[in-house]
Amino acid sequence: MTAKIWIFDLDDTLHNASAHIFPIMNRAMTRYMMEALDLDEPAAHKMRQHYWRIYGATLKGLMRHHDIDPHHFLNETHRFENLPELVIQAKRLRHMLQGLSGRKLVFTNAPRNYAIRVLELLGVDDIFELIFSVESTRFHAKPSTRGFQKLLKAIKAKASDCIMLEDSLPALMTAKRLGMKTIWVSKRLKKPNFVDYRISTVLALTHLKL
Questions:
Q1: Domain spanning 5-15+88-207: which CATH class is it, in words?
Q2: Using one digit for the tens of pLDDT, what is the confidence trace for 86-116?
Q3: 88/21 Cα distance (integer angstroms)
Q4: Alpha-carbon span 37 to 183, nearest angstrom
Q5: What digits encode the pLDDT tens for the residues 174-185?
Q6: Three-state helix/strand/coil letters over the chain
Q7: In the prediction, which pLDDT does 2 show?
């Protein structure tokens, strides 16, 4: 039997980014767009949200429509000098991950340097064989099918061997369409039919019979 391949999103899946990190990141992105595109704050905020809804990632819209340098954008919006104060620890996370049999990797729309810093602060960086960041996808961020295909090629695996854990429904929809098993990390109760399982926190993974 082929070993399971566990694919974990990072922000709002392995840790709670909504509490402290996302508000700062969103303000940084809005500020970046104000300066780069000469927009006032309401217009930049509206454009950021529009691109996130349309493409699943603000960066994709900025690259496609405004020729923004992705490396510069990511560097400027993911600085977080006080990151240790912002990352919320989950006490049993390492124990839970170590108890999973199979390969484990992280697939994130965040830049690689940020992802490594967060995983180190969570004390789980050594558990994952690969961090597949937005740079790894050549900026075809989730939910883009091309990003998923690049990941599968990199790990030399079939989608049917993979289990995707995500807080983002569009990303899970792509994963399911490709043939992955899907686990939605969300406190919302009603799950769509392309989600195989819903858990309120990644720590609840220990209770699932897969």
A1: alpha beta
A2: 999 888 999 999 999 999 999 999 999 999 9
A3: 10
A4: 38
A5: 999 999 999 999
A6: CCCCEEEECCECCCECCCCCHHHHHHHHHHHHHHHHHCCCHHHHHHHHHHHHHHHCCHHHHHHHHHCCCHHHHHHHHCCCCCHHHHCCCCCCHHHHHHCCCCEEEEECCCCHHHHHHHHHHHCCHHHCCEEECCCCCCCCCCCCHHHHHHHHHHHCCCHHHEEEEECCHHHHHHHHHHCCEEEEECCCCCCCCCCCEEECCHHHHHHCCC
A7: 67
Q: Which residue has the higher pLDDT, 208 or 128?
A: 128
Would you list the domain boundaries of the chain? 5-15+88-207, 21-77
- Choose among 207, 107, 98, 100: nearest CA to 157: 107
Look up the pTM and report it. 0.94
Work out the mean pLDDT of the chain and round it to a whole number.
95
Query: Any idea what the Cα angle at residue 71 is, between residues 68 and 72, rounded to 5°?
Result: 65
**Helices 169-178 and 145-155 sit at what angle, rounded to 10 degrees?**
60
Q: Which residue has the tokens 């484990």?
A: 104
CATH topology of domain 21-77: DNA polymerase; domain 1 (1.10.150)
